[in-house]
Amino acid sequence: MREDIEQRARDLARYIIDHDSTVRGAAAAFGISKSSVHKDLTERLERIDPRLYAAVKVVLERNKAERHLRGGDATRRKYKALQTS
Length: 85
What we know:
Layout: H1 3-19, H2 23-30, H3 34-48, H4 50-84
Helix pairs in contact: 1-3, 1-4, 2-3, 3-4
């Protein structure tokens, strides 16, 4: 595997942990696709740095468990904005 991709995987993991970010947020910050972030973190990082993988996995699992709440909140804000227009 190319060294720059390995470094990107480490950098993404540190970003997500440090900023308590989502995959979408990390993708935007690094200017890459969400699927690239996901592949780097779930497949590549596990082989490259198992300890860092374990730490980022905690954040990703929490984000996955909370995503329905964020989606509901976004929908509520959308319809509230439509009512006040």
